[in-house]
Amino acid sequence: MDAANAPAEAATEPPDASATDASVGGWSWVNPLPQGNTLHAIWESAPNDVWAVGDLGSMVHFDGATWTPWPSGTTCGLRSMWGSAANDVWAVGDCGTVLHWNGTTWSPVPSGTTSDLIDLWGIGPSAIWAAGTGNVADPGVLQQWDGTSFSTAFTNASATFDAVWASSASDVWVVGQGPGGGVKYWNWNGQAWTNPTAPFLETTGMSLWGSGPNDIWSPPFYWNGSFWTDTTGTSRYLGYGGSMGGTGPNDVWTSSGGHWDGASWTTFDCGGGDVAGSTFGDLWFVGKSGAVSHWDGSACTPSTPASWSNAAFRAVTAIGPKDVYLVSDQVRHWDGATWTTSTVPIPANYQATVWDTIWGSSNIDIWIGAMLPGAAGTAQYGALSHWDGTAWSSPTILGNEESIMGIWGSASNDVWAVTQARLGATSHSWHWDGSTWTSVVTGPHNGGTAVWGSSATDVWIAGGPMTHWDGTTWTLETSAPVGLIWGSGPTDVWVVSADPDASSASDVYHYDGVHWAEVATLPFNATQISGSGPSDAWVSGNGGAAWHWDGTSWSGTVTGTDTDLYGIASTGPGQAWAVGSPTVLRFMR
Fold first, then answer.
1. Tens of pLDDT along 230-270?
2. Looking at residue 19, what DSSP letter applies?
3. Nearest to 570 by CA among 487, 503, 482, 493
4. Which of 217, 281, 498, 537 lies 20 to 30 angstroms, CA to CA, from 293?
5. Please, are residues 330 and 342 in contact by the beta-carbon 8 Å criterion?
6. 234: which residues sit within 8 A by CB, 6+ positions away?
7. What is the side-by-side strand order in the sheet with 67-69?
């Protein structure tokens, strides 16, 4: 929300990084920086004092030079901000969360509700309103701060409240969706709440901002002091402009990049989910993946996140703590101090793609796999490329419409890759002998969804049903579960598969060398399993899930993101990496 033009007071330094939200639960952000959760709200008291908040309690501060992660003390999403001064800043969000900044510390404040609080507005330190959305358990609510505590100022059991704005304590507006749908407005006139108009049929217009009681915007609707009108077809029409701010009736801006000069709207090339600023030449915007940008009146400049923010990471492997590889459209390598990037050469008649599978035995023996689109874009082909410590090989093209699902090897001349075909094509199991990839019959269906082994004479391929290689023969293992597979040895093998009774859960099975046993159910869809030993295994999944096996039980960790994690790799007890799009996280404890 828009900021008050208050004198700036420099924020104090955040606590040590090990205690910030950027490293909550042992996980810290590597990409984007300083963090990659969606930011929903921003507030500025001065160019060197800007706050932004977002999903999972994410909070960052700008001191004029650097954005710094800050501990909010909550994992509930934060949705809106407002402040009267640099030492009086508020943030509200999900779970009825209210936080207050006194110039030194962010502290929780009881809100008097558990409803998600969506919007925040104030006219002074002792007159602040927070609007909350309705649900079955809690009605739409408007909570009011009187300088001492919050209390419920207005409630509606059959409505959702999406925004609030006030010109004075006797002129408070709330917009939301009323019974039967459509936009509806409520107004407090100092004596009672009234409905100035029947609901509009549109379900947009869910923002509010005004310069005074006779000049209120809620695009595409406008209040002139007497009635709400739809501005469609008039000079006031902007469409659905998102959140708003301004300095007066002739200087209004929106988070979608619109500016009103008192006569007409113009658009400018900057925007996000929320906007705040002191003038049209000093606007801040926030959005997805931690994005923050600044408009100086003529140009839009990304302020954060830094680094490779748009990369779609699909897999990670770790040879050691100082030898980690991530794959997207390129391959990134961490040597313990520096990131370097390498690119796979793409053969003629094929197009570049995102590499989504990786395995390696050493820093001179790494394989990656993907489906390469043909130049005409009419077909895709399974492809494998090898890193020899110097360069990536030109990809070996496998079958048409074959997706590379897994790669594993016992040595540089004994590597397996399994594919899953699409569009009626044939799946295969492929073997590398040090010079050539050869299709091998490994079961009634061939191919699979994952492959892992403990040695050249102990290899498992998952793919319905599981098959096992003893060095001589492939055997169908009908009693074995099918899913993601990893183990520390022949008597310690894990399989994580989709739970048939829950669309968002995964069953965990363990093999002791004789029997398979179901040992746990994880509350998410698993994407990868990895580990470093019998007491160190990890499973990644959707919604930012990362669960750990410590040798006794499986337990969840707080990653600090709700982005789906596609891959995870352990570099030893207390150390791991996880990747998503565009997320890269590192675990250290």
1. 888 888 888 766 899 999 999 999 999 999 999 999 999 89
2. G
3. 487
4. 217
5. yes
6. none
7. 39-46, 49-54, 59-62, 67-69
Please report how many Cα atoms fall inside a 13 Å half-sphere around the Cα of residue 239, on the Cβ side.
11
Q: What does residue 291 show for φ and ψ, rounded to 5 degrees?
A: -70, 135
Residue positions counted in the chain = 589
Query: If you search the block for the tokens 């003390």, which residue do you land on?
Result: 73
**What's the whole-model pTM score?**
0.88
Instruction: Measure the CA–CA gap between 334 and 321, rounded to whole angstroms.
Output: 9
From CA 258, how far away is CA 269, in angstroms rounded? Answer: 9
pLDDT at residue 306 above 70? no
Examine the pLDDT at 587 and tell me if it is beyond 80: yes
Average pLDDT, the chain: 90
**Tokens in use for 99?**
């936080």
Question: Residue 188 has which token pair?
Answer: 């407090």
Q: What is the Cα–Cα distance from 502 to 371, expressed in whole angstroms?
A: 30
Which helix (H) or strand (E) is 411 found in, with range?
A: strand 402-411
What 3-state class would DSSP assign to 416?
strand
Omega of the bond prior to 347 within 30 degrees of 0, cis? Answer: no
3-state secondary structure 156-207: ECCCEEEEEEEEECCEEEEEEECCCCCEEEEEECCCCEECCCCCECCCCCCC
Contact (Cβ atoms closer than 8 angstroms) between residue 222 and residue 185: no
Residue 487 parent element (H or E): strand 484-489
Tell me what pLDDT residue 134 has. Answer: 54
Tokens standing for residue 520? 């746990």
Residue environment code for 537-548, b if the CB has 16+ CB neighbours within 10 A, otherwise e:
bbbbbbebbbbb
Residue 78, CB-side half-sphere exposure with 13 Å CA sphere: 30
User: pLDDT band at residue 8, thresholds of 50, 70 and 90?
Assistant: very low
Q: Which pLDDT value is given to residue 22?
A: 47
Q: What value does the CA radius of gyration of the chain take, rounded to a whole number of Å?
A: 28
Shortest CA distance to 219 belongs to which of 249, 202, 240?
240
Q: Determine contact, residues 106/73, Cβ cutoff 8 Å.
A: yes
Nearest to 63 by CA among 83, 80, 41, 86: 86
Handedness of CA 456, 457, 458, 461 (dihedral sign): positive
The secondary structure of residue 257, as a DSSP letter, is S
Closest CA to 416 of 451, 446, 455: 451
- The neighbouring-strand residues paired with 223 are 216, 228
Q: Do the Cβ atoms of 289 and 57 come closer than 8 Å?
A: no
**Contact status, residue 253 vs residue 244, Cβ threshold 8 Å:** yes
325: amino acid identity, one letter: Y
Rounded to an integer, what distance in angstroms lies between the CA atom of residue 13 and that of residue 262?
Answer: 41
Residue 358 pLDDT > 80? yes
Cα torsion through 505, 511, 517, 518, rounded to 10: -10
Residues 537 and 495 sit within 8 Å (Cβ to Cβ): no
> What are the tokens at 483?
């899913």
Residues 529, 538 contacting (CB under 8 angstroms): yes
**Encoded tokens for 500:** 């048939």
Return all residues near 12 (Cβ < 8 A) that are at least 6 apart.
Answer: 103, 104
User: pLDDT tens-digit profile of 114-129?
Assistant: 999 999 999 999 999 9
